[in-house]
Amino acid sequence: MFGNTKASTPKIQKNTALVLQDFEPSMEDRIFIAKYVVGKLNTEDLVQFADQKLTDGVYSEHLLNIMDDGPEHWNPVSEYFESFVEEKGYAVPSFEQAVWVLLRYHILLISQGNVSPSKQFRQLLDDIESFDLHKGIKKYVGDNIGIENMYGWYHSDCSTIEETDSGIFNESLDWVEKFKNEH
What we know:
Layout: E1 12-13, E2 19-20, H1 27-37, H2 43-55, H3 61-69, H4 74-87, H5 95-111, H6 117-127, H7 148-154, H8 161-179
Antiparallel strand pairs: 1-2
């Protein structure tokens, strides 16, 4: 989904010895792009992204245009952002692909055991709030993307926070195993 579809371009070196970097999206960039697609970002976020990429030595007229337009104009800024991503050889994911990027990111974090499972799951639900957890379900809310058990633990009002966190953590391990080769 984010694989480089263009041949890598050589690094350009200017007389000032500033080396401009190719854009190779990190996991952080992929999460940022996914959040853009699902509607979690605003123009301020896009301007900050452009500023950071330019500071990091990634050059693009589209990034400069984002900086020029500033955060007051969503349409041109979002078009420049999408053009930048595509210019660098990466497709802007579909809404569903973006949801799966965010699912994988948050659930992998939970499964690694270094975050509060309930807090991270809450962040996941916030990030995918525009996704319909009821559409196409077989039996339970969230079963259309495999999070029905984590969702159930998260909304359990008969469990302690420790039980809830343990349940979400264990279900995250199952989810990772079940969906490791999908999306």
